[in-house]
Amino acid sequence: MKLMLTQPSISPEELATITTPTLVLAGKRDIVKEEHTIALANNIPGSELRILKGETHSSYVVNSEKLYDIIKEFLREANT
């Protein structure tokens, strides 16, 4: 529980140095607060934020095919 509350500890300044195309994915029913996810995306220059309705933090396991399509499309667009 302590790890979940304290990590990762990445400052907005550190996030601002990310130059790789970044997709920030979260579920509308995610354990991570939506405002934290939005702040994360807002601090990564040029990142794309997708908050998926009905999804949770573990949806990448349960709905891997659905997420695969989203990630695949992002990677395709990032490489053009």
Note down, in words, how this protein is organized:
- With 80 residues, the chain is of the alpha+beta class.
- The chain starts with a helix and ends with a helix.
- It has helices spanning 2-6, 12-15, 34-43, 59-62, 64-78, and strands spanning 23-27, 48-52.
- The protein has a two-stranded parallel ribbon with strand order 1-2.
Comma- or semicolon-separated keywords:
single chain; 80 residues; Rossmann fold; two-stranded parallel ribbon; 5 helices
SSE layout and pairing:
Elements: H1 2-6, H2 12-15, E1 23-27, H3 34-43, E2 48-52, H4 59-62, H5 64-78
Parallel strand pairs: 1-2
By secondary-structure content and strand pairing, the structural class works out as alpha+beta
* Total number of distinct structural domains: 1
CATH superfamily, by name, is: Alpha/Beta hydrolase fold, catalytic domain
- The end-to-end distance, rounded to whole angstroms, is 41 Å
State the helix count: 5
* Helix-strand topology string: HHEHEHH
Biggest sheet architecture: 2 strands, parallel
Taking pLDDT < 50 over at least 5 consecutive residues as the criterion, the unreliable ranges are none
CATH topology: Rossmann fold
CATH architecture: 3-Layer(aba) Sandwich
Q: Beta fraction of the residues?
A: 5-15%
**What value does the average pLDDT take?**
88
**Strand order of the biggest β-sheet:** 1-2
Count the beta strands: 2
The portion of residues assigned to helices is: 40-55%
Shape type: flat
- Look at the structure and give the CATH class: Alpha Beta
Radius of gyration: 13 Å
